Amino acid sequence: MTEKAAALSHLKVLDLSRVLAGPWCTQILADLGADVVKVERPGAGDDTRHWGPPFLKDADGKDTDQASYFTCANRNKRSITLDLAHPDGQAIIRQMAAQSDVLVENFKVGGLKAYGLDYESLKAINPRLIYCSVTGFGQDGPYAERAGYDLMIQAMSGMMSITGRPDDVPGGGALRVGVALTDLFTGVYAATAILAALEVRNRTGAGQQIDMALLDVGMATLANQAGGFLNTGNVPQRQGNSHPSLAPYQDFPTADGAMLLAIGNNGQFTRFCEAVQRPDWATDPRFASNTLRVRNREVLIPAMEALTRTRSTAEWVTLLEDRAVPCGPINDIGVAFDDAQVKARGLAITQPRAPATAAQDGIAAIASVASPLRLMATPPVLRRAPPALGEHTDEVLAELGLDAARIGVLKQGGVV
Q1: Which SS3 state, helix, strand or coil, does residue 61 take?
Q2: May I ask the CATH architecture of the domain 249-333?
Q3: Which end of the chain has fewer CB atoms < 10 Å from its terminal CB, N or C?
Q4: Which of 35, 46, 101, 183 is catalytic?
């Protein structure tokens, strides 16, 4: 573990979120040094603790009952268990909110109001509080009270309609992205909004509520595809791994598999043509510009595919990288983590768990992907492995001023 000056070490974050979008946001803040306290249901915890297989393994290599899913979004946090439906649990949350800079929650719209834990109620206690609400569809509109899930949003936003191969080719049909993309992007956008709200608070002294919706984020991340539709009226269609606005920019078959070519300008195309001893392609009036290559891809791509099949993927990568033509293998995740650049950047990390915690469930360490945020003066820090359920309950309650006797009473009553 490292203990360095961290960008957000002065901030306290109260995390009432679960599953992925909210926890992804708070893990970003935690990686940057914020003290994030994750509140979980007694006896059950975050849903993702049980989303397996795969499960974490003990020292003997046997599966435990703890799903690995939880670990991807909850490192550097402290976990407490608390029953929000109990008045004593609500009182503890109010006490914590009074001392927090940020609160993140992903309850259904109005779900926390019944407990007196909505923004207006907590604002009265702490006017400086940044209160970030994450929902499927936002705080208003006809769908506001609906539950929202990543897969549903990928479908509704149109993301699935542009992911996959066309219907008329083998394997055609709409597909989801291989990770919960809208959840993850919502977490990133939420963290950005929180940092902006904190900057406003630095100027005004006032907190505010942030309304993050998975649907809003799903529509925003359509990016150039949305821009094309909104400005032309043409509905984008699925086209596999090819690009609607660039060519050649897709996968190509090789002698032993496939490779990816990402040619984005005329210079790169010219160098590719020279490397494969087809300089005539670069001067062919059908392929002389990117726009022409896109319009004539039905001719260009089959000709290129016939040529790319003549060498192995590794041979193509060696040949084209030396000529600054973007290309690469299509790795599985195992191969990706074995890549020299991935290793050089230290993207796979392992965090040891507290000895007492490891002794209870046999899990000595947990691996995850390093934060991609490389602040040179105030880098992300590694302080805690993803916590066991309620691992820090006593510690956090003691910091609030509760003595051992009071904590014991709360445990007996099922509040914590």
Answers
A1: coil
A2: 2-Layer Sandwich (3.30)
A3: N
A4: 183
